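Narrative summary of target 7.
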Amino acid sequence: MAVCSCNNHAPESGNPPKQSTLKDSPALKKDTTKAIAAKSDTTPLPPEHYTRQGPEIGFDLCDSERVGDLHIGMTKEQVIKLLGQPESKSDTMRAGADGLLYQQWEYKKQGISLAMGGDDLSNLAIRDLTVFAPCTFKTRRRIGIGSTVKDISTAYKKAMRISSEKISGMIILGSAYGGIQFTINKDKVDTLFIGASAE
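Modeled conformation, tokenized:
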């Protein structure tokens, strides 16, 4: 820290100017070891808007939701730019339902698993995504790992009312054919999945 003076004139007396010592500054004696807690985002959530009805709102959620910057349809180039190369990739398989080639990309240290699919390996894109601890990404409606069941009910109030399924330890918005699935452990989100878990 530099200390500047606006008075550049030499002292009139023969005594040298007294040097101030920064170590005695009261400001530096403050306890700086405590981290400042991040403020939670309290801006109102935008209205929920779905073009489909019933369980099919899950397809709206697949199209519109994202976790952090990850979303269905994101290309492999975009994924690598955001997350880097995956820690591991599964063998390539061709799915019988849609005929696409699939690879599972794992980023376990970041708490992310991606099903990448495409006509060939050059045009893979995210087909479904799963996040788990230690991932800190959240959906556009601010739900992530550690969010409570109440948080989900508040954030996705309309989706919960129109199309939700509560299975033991799980909340599904939409359906298994497309939507968001929250695995719940002790009233908190343990894993978050966007996509289709059934064909």
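The first strand starts at residue 88 and ends at 89.
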